[in-house]
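Here is my example:
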Amino acid sequence: MTFDEAWAHARDVEGWLTEAQARRLFAAATLAGAGGRVVEIGSFRGRSAIVLAGAGIEVICIDPHAGSDRGPQEIAADADRGSADHEAFHANLARAGVADRVRHVRAFSDVALEQVPGPVDVLFVDGAHRFGPARADLVHWGDRVRAGGRMLVHDAWSSIGVTLALLTTTVFGRRWRYVGRAGSLAEFVREDAGGAGNALRQLRELPWFARNVVVKALILTRRRRGPWPC
C-alpha cells in the first residue's frame, strides 16, 4: 500500500494526526522493512494505526480503551466512551483492510510491557499526556527500541506533560538523536547523540511550545476559536 492509499483510508477516521505527521510515520515504518515491528502507544480510533499498518509492517497497538486521556477535558475513565472507541477502532481497521497486520493489546502501557516482549523497530508514543505516564513511556518503552530504530512522539512541544517528559529524557540524554518534527510530532533515532548540538536543536522548539500552550489556554477559556494545536 502506498502512503496515499493508506491516508485515503485514515484521513476520515476521528483523530488529531495531520497528513504531514502521517507521512512521517509511514516513512519510519517503511524504513523498518517488512520484517520490522512497530509499537504504538495510544491508538484511539485507529487513524495512525491504519497509516503504520499500511506500510506493510506488523503493528502492535497498545490502548486500554478505557475512555480516559482522550483530550484536555476527557481525562477520567468512562466505560461507555471506551467501548465506543474500541468498536470504532476495530471497525476502522477492518474497513481499511489492515486488521490482519495489527495486534491490539487492550491494556495500559505499563501493564503491556509484560505482554509485549522483544525489541521494537519503531515506537510511536501518543498515550497519556500527563508527565508521569508520558515519561514512563519514553523511558521504559524507549528501552525496547533497537539501536538505529526510531521513536516518534505526538504532542511533543505542544503538551506541557509531554514536553516536560522530553526535557527530562531526550534533551540532555545521549541515546536519542533529534531528527525534527512535523507539527507536534517529534522524531528521534536511537543512537549516540552526545554533544550540545542535539540538546540545542530540541531547546529551539520551546518558543513554539510556548505559543501552543497559549493557544490552548485561549481555546479552553473560549477566548479564541480555531483548531487545536497538533
Summary: Strands lie at 37-41, 58-62, 102-105, 120-125, 145-153, 176-182, 185-190. The chain has one domain: 3-220.
